[in-house]
Design goal:
It contains 16 helices and 17 strands. It starts with a helix and ends with a strand. The chain is an alpha+beta fold. The protein folds into three domains: about 75-295, no CATH class; about 300-440, Mog1/PsbP, alpha/beta/alpha sandwich (Protein Transport Mog1p, Chain A, 3-Layer(aba) Sandwich); about 445-499, Membrane-bound Lytic Murein Transglycosylase D, Chain A (Roll), CATH 3.10.350.
Length: about 500
């Protein structure tokens, strides 16, 4: 992909944004043992000394708990919503009763992520993102996701996948520590990864079949699975222009659960074994009621994208990308692209010693092929800054580093053809980097899902005009499970996204 090639010259860029970093902090607790000695007392005064019990050694954190904490850290923590949590618990209880595996117990956590994803641990801990809950349109679609993940636990897919991951890690260590032949090492790693991928696809098809069966037996519309697989495919198409940058929060269900037309076909065939379309519980109205007011998209504490503008109310800064850029907020950086990848940008931040000159930092090696003749000091809205140009084989880079508070923010603007006009647009963009006003910080609220009752004369285009998102019409249709030529029925409720 073009986007990955843009930053091949960038070396050593750290997992930057301080606001987006999610780390597990491991605390090493040392046990303090008390010891004492007592002299001999006269018999009349002899007593048994009441010494305090030695403190108990800290119990090791169970592997499942460590994995749970890792997932929370990677996906922005848990998202708490009493209505949705009730819907999830009710749905899981029904599915468990129908599964024939009443001995298995499940716990569901909503993850504070806009990605559309769900997964399960071998322990029965299920995870769904709020992005997935926003995309679903009735409880049968939700049931299809939960039953699919339960199927992974029932069929021990989750446990087998965990074992496979451990084996792959062992293969990797053997390759790194033992093999001297790089080609043989690469071959061993490739084989282990191919085996994992193939096994995963086989698991997904099996889990689809088990999940549809459980949902149908629980009384849900078994066609919810095919509808939701289709919705996720359409949602992925909306994102296809933006790469995830390796951000777990941006990885959707179709990335971790390979989906093909065969999976949709398989889900439809399985549903037909139980009933014809239109049967089974869907309860769209009750499900939608539970989504009213839920957060949609990014969490303001991690920064917000509004068109070409990025705002970070917690860190108190904003900037606007050049005309035509589409921005993506990841855990590592703010990324942007224009013209199918012919231009790109990256903004992240690092700590740089206060006594190190920014011009010296530009040529310190964090990016290759910097032309030292182009390095110069400057200021950006009162903040100390420096700029330079770097050139790769196919790309030309305009670099800026800006000292803001305790951090240094790094702008990398890239173009395959960096003309004077393109360079001017880059300069104008970085000059928009500034401190937010208190009023702007107060107004930086998350987007939310709201229900609207369709009135006579309402059309998808009219409703989409009320959406505070990109790709308004396409996103409105996908969010509501509507086809491109759909008409709206007065009295129905639809989801829109506004501030």
């Amino acid at each position: 992909m073009e986007k990955s090639g843009v930053f091949e010259a960038v070396r050593g860029i750290k997992r930057g944004s301080a606001a987006r970093q999610s780390r597990l902090v491991l605390l090493a607790l040392a046990s303090l043992w008390l010891a004492g000695c007592a002299g001999t007392l006269p018999e009349s005064q002899s007593k048994v000394a009441a010494l305090p019990d030695p403190p108990k050694r800290a119990e090791p954190v169970p592997a499942a708990q460590r994995e749970h904490q890792r997932i929370l850290a990677a996906y922005g923590g848990a998202y708490h919503n009493a209505q949705l949590e009730t819907v999830l618990k009710t749905t899981v209880d029904k599915l468990v009763a129908a599964s024939g595996k009443a001995d298995l117990s499940y716990r569901v956590t909503i993850l504070n992520s806009p990605a559309v994803n769900a997964f399960a641990l071998p322990t029965g801990h299920l995870y769904v993102t709020r992005g997935l809950l926003a995309l679903a349109n009735d409880d049968s679609e939700l049931a299809s996701v939960l039953s699919h993940e339960m199927a992974h636990v029932i069929a021990r897919h989750a446990a087998m996948r965990e074992d496979q991951a451990r084996q792959a890690a062992i293969v990797s260590r053997v390759v790194n520590d033992v093999l001297n032949d790089p080609q043989m090492g690469a071959l061993a790693l490739a084989k282990s990864k191919i085996a994992l991928a193939s096994f995963s696809r086989a698991q997904e098809i099996e889990a689809d079949g088990i999940g549809v069966s459980i949902a149908a037996k629980a009384g849900y519309d078994p066609y919810g699975a095919s509808r939701f697989l289709t919705a996720m495919g359409r949602n992925a198409e909306l994102k296809s222009g933006m790469a995830s940058g390796g951000d777990p929060r941006s990885i959707d269900f179709l990335s971790s659960h390979p989906s093909t037309p065969d999976r949709v076909k398989n889900a439809l065939a399985k549903a037909r074994e139980y009933t014809s379309p239109g049967s089974g519980n869907r309860d769209r109205r009750s499900y939608l009621a539970a989504t009213e007011g839920m957060a949609y998209g990014e969490d303001p504490t991690e920064g917000l994208i509004r068109g070409r503008t990025f705002l970070h109310p917690r860190l108190g800064f904003t900037f606007t990308a050049p005309e035509g850029f589409v921005l993506d907020n990841t855990a590592q950086a703010v990324l942007g692209m224009k013209d199918n990848g012919s231009q790109a940008l990256r903004l992240d931040n690092v700590r740089v010693p206060a006594d190190q000159k920014l011009t010296d930092y530009l040529v310190s090696g964090w990016i290759e092929k910097v032309d030292p003749r182009t390095v110069q000091d400057t200021t950006i809205n009162g903040s100390p800054a420096a700029t330079a140009i770097a050139k790769g084989d196919q790309w030309s880079f305009r670099l800026y580093v800006v000292r803001y508070g305790e951090d240094v923010y790094r702008f990398v603007f890239a173009a395959k053809n960096r003309t004077a006009d393109v360079d001017r647009a880059f300069r104008q963009s970085v000059s928009s980097f500034r401190r937010m006003t208190q009023a702007e910080i107060d107004r930086a609220r998350p987007l939310r899902v709201h229900l609207v009752t369709v009135q006579p004369g309402d059309t998808p285009e009219k409703m989409a005009g009320r959406m505070a998102t990109d790709h308004q019409l396409a996103r409105f249709l996908v969010l509501n499970g509507l086809s491109a030529n759909a008409t709206l029925t007065p009295g129905d409720e639809v989801k829109i996204v506004t501030e």
